Amino acid sequence: MLRAKLTALPAAVLLLASLGSVARAKPIVALKLSAMLVEHQANGAERLVPVEKTALRPGDVIRYIIVASNTGSNAAKDLVPAGRVPAGTVYVVGSASSPTATAEFSLDGGKTWSAVPTVKIRTQAGDVVKRAVPSAYTAVRWVGAKALAPNAADAFAYEVTVK
After folding, report:
1. pLDDT less than 50: residues of the chain
2. Which of 89, 106, 118, 144 could be joined to 139 by an S-S link, Cβ 3.0–4.6 Å?
């Protein structure tokens, strides 16, 4: 059941981009999502196995890699790729990576974003704002990436643990 949700994820990858005037700029950006089970070998090396080829168990770590490729004639500006944290998984703290952008997280499926999400908790002394726990994250996105040049690609990755 979990495998079906995870392998259906390519359709859930979001691309939020402001590409400017279509008449002036002609970037053509394609996104490819891969989901890989991360296995640790006895020698400390990692082995990545496509999730489609394995039965997932609680505690397994899945690495999602989003590759953005621009086959257009102009740079793609303001590229903001995002991926969901699937139901039945928890975001792995510190795993969001990109050589060109900073990660932000959502607690509400992508309606609002923050580099450090917070929640308001009611106490007898009044409302208190606290940092959200990573198990509450529902999505991750990358902002501030440099423009994606024509005929170039960039990768964005994050990991989740199966509950």
Report:
1. 1-23
2. 106
